[in-house]
């Protein structure tokens, strides 16, 4: 993996704009100071593999900026894109706590800054701080709920356009961090977006064109702006 990395004994987590909007990093006092003292920050280019499915879990990875694609592969080589992880998400948390292998492969889809925390350091941190342990439990609960809703979307959405609308809406909400503007970098190809939405590349291309014509979204280069969350919500219902 071609990365630029640096030791980060005191990364400036306290001024991070995402901290209050994501569960795991939203710590106070001694817990935040301790969290700042552990881990290694790494600047990863687009296409860097953070970790591979089925590899032994040696660390958890916190996304500070950028986006990471999570996927899994079947025995016959078919790849399924599960989700796009955003700033504040903790990758590999469940595997760290359970001591198992990584369940997915994580790959950056744009230049990304991450903080990698060794398993022993993270477990020690969670043992020292009850608040951090509770936040870790809540973060895992949110992952479970997200997986449930993703499965529900694929199984119950009546149309491919509805599934794609749901993907874009969820992506926009995560990127906005509670703000009004839902703008994000669409770092997937149409083929990959089709994989995520459970449809075909041709359908994705047609649907994106229709969404733009109907003023539901606006695309400039790789930047996508959700103009009508209500319209996408109506399609995905």
Major β-sheet annotation: 5 strands, antiparallel
Mean pLDDT: 87
Name the quaternary structure. single chain
Structural class: alpha+beta
The number of distinct β-strands equals: 12
Strands in their spatial order, largest beta sheet: 1-2-9-4-7
Q: Report how far apart the termini are.
A: 41 Å
* CATH homologous superfamily assignment of the largest domain: Jelly Rolls
Low-confidence stretches: 1-11
SSE pattern: EHEEEEEEHEEHHHEHHEEH
| Rg on CA atoms, Å | 18 Å
Q: Give the overall silhouette.
A: globular
CATH topology of the largest domain: Jelly Rolls
Corresponding CATH architecture of the largest domain = Sandwich
Strand content: 15-25%
Tally of separate domains: 2
CATH class designation of the largest domain = Mainly Beta
Helix amount: 40-55%
Description:
It is a single chain. With 237 residues, the chain is of the alpha+beta class. The chain folds into two domains: 4-152, Jelly Rolls (Sandwich), CATH 2.60.120; 158-236, Winged helix-like DNA-binding domain superfamily/Winged helix DNA-binding domain (Arc Repressor Mutant, subunit A, Orthogonal Bundle), CATH 1.10.10.10. It is 41% helix and 24% strand. It is built from eight helices and twelve strands. The chain has a five-stranded antiparallel sheet. It has a four-stranded antiparallel sheet with strand order 3-8-5-6. It has a three-stranded antiparallel sheet with strand order 10-12-11. Strand 11 (217-220) and strand 12 form a beta hairpin. The N and C termini lie far apart (41 Å).
